[in-house]
Specification:
The structure is a single chain. By secondary structure, the protein is an alpha+beta fold. It has a domain of 103 residues. It has 9 helices and 14 strands. Strands 1, 2, 3, 4, 5, 6, 7, 9, 10, 11, 12 and 13 form a 12-stranded antiparallel β-sheet that branches. It has a two-stranded antiparallel ribbon with strand order 8-14. A hairpin with an 8-residue loop joins strand 10 and strand 11. The chain is elongated, with a radius of gyration of 24 Å. The chain starts with 8 loop residues before the first strand and ends in an 11-residue tail after the last helix. The model has no long low-confidence stretch (mean pLDDT 87).
């Protein structure tokens, strides 16, 4: 049985995805081909040994693409050999989800990559250029449907989208245009886990007792676990940011604020409540408050919003905590962070 405490528990940020390039192979085409040839041979040997699995991407900007298989079951996508070495920032690109890495995965990854790339690898890892970076904060013992979400800094071309289930329950918001550098999001992690468990059952089937038992355990963990809301900052276009520059970027967690609908405070007439909630979720809190500004309900609507602010959401230290989480992966040497 789920036990819900009075106050939600906000967990520290984790790194949910990182994609970076290494400044390797920035040579003339002829010199670059000579540099790439022995690396391709070592990739072939690693694939034959089962340490790597070749991947194919139509129109890829890299000549070699493979998953590096880690002992925990996690995978890292590695691409080597820029198709246009004179135009790309580097000839090695890596993408992984550090939150899914197990004990020893980072050491294993760096060990295999060092064998493939060669003697320059350690020095290259001091100069990674980050192109994509996602941070995630999980809030336990909280239902997204109990919240009104305010997002500051939404510009004219920002898309504010909601995801509903078949019963009208809000499962998530996606914030940011297709062309923007960031796509921030807030969604029900519990719903996502339930969906993932069901997809796994549908994919694997229940043909054996072991699979049936595993599926039941998976569903029980979701059912008995706490309700979880996840806040994500998805840096889609970091444009080669250096690791020591991350801490100086704006704290995007501060753009979020929340009001809890079950908190105390003045109540609104039923129709006004429904209208205000609907406008907040469809157009955003700022637009909803502006709509009521000159109405007879302006004062009570503003009091309703103010009195339900969630004091447990303290985003000020979160960006530095997120940057510290990048260091704590252990993937990059301290010198990459300017220390």
């Amino acid at each position: 049985m789920k036990i819900k405490p009075m106050t939600p528990v906000v967990h520290p940020p984790v790194v949910d995805r990182i994609a970076y390039v290494l400044p390797w192979g920035t040579h003339s085409f002829k010199a670059y081909s000579a540099l790439l040839a022995p690396v391709q041979s070592r990739i072939k040997s690693a694939i034959a040994a089962g340490r790597c699995e070749r991947k194919y991407f139509p129109g890829s900007r890299y000549r070699e693409s493979f998953h590096l298989n880690l002992n925990s079951g996690a995978k890292a996508l590695v691409q080597i050999g820029a198709a246009q070495p004179d135009r790309q920032n580097g000839g090695i690109r890596v993408m992984m989800n550090p939150a899914k890495l197990g004990d020893g995965d980072v050491r294993q990854f760096n060990r295999i990559m060092s064998r493939i790339v060669g003697d320059d690898y350690d020095e290259l890892m001091e100069r990674p250029l980050v192109n994509c970076l996602d941070f995630a904060v999980d809030i336990h013992y909280l239902l997204l449907n109990d919240l009104l979400v305010h997002y500051k800094g939404a510009h004219q071309f920002t898309l504010f989208c909601q995801r509903f289930d078949a019963y009208g329950v809000i499962n998530g918001y996606n914030i940011g245009s297709a062309s923007s550098a960031y796509m921030d999001a807030i969604y029900s992690k519990s719903t996502e886990r339930t969906h993932a468990a069901l997809l796994s059952i549908a994919k694997e089937g229940l043909n054996t007792e072991a699979l049936t038992a595993n599926a039941l355990k998976q569903m029980k963990r979701v059912k008995d676990g706490p309700d979880v809301v996840r806040v994500e900052i998805r840096g889609k276009k970091m444009r080669g940011t250096k690791l020591h520059q991350l801490a100086s970027l704006p704290n995007r967690f501060e753009r979020f604020s929340f009001a809890h609908l079950n908190a105390g405070g003045p109540e609104l007439p039923t129709l006004v409540t429904k209208a205000f909630h609907a406008m907040c979720r469809q157009d955003g809190v700022k637009a909803a408050l502006a709509t009521f500004k000159h109405s007879d309900h302006a004062r009570v609507v503003n009091a309703y919003w103010r009195n339900r602010q969630c004091g447990w959401w303290q985003p000020k230290p979160m960006w530095q905590q997120a940057c510290d989480a990048v260091r704590n992966i252990g993937l990059f040497p301290d010198r990459a962070f300017g220390t």
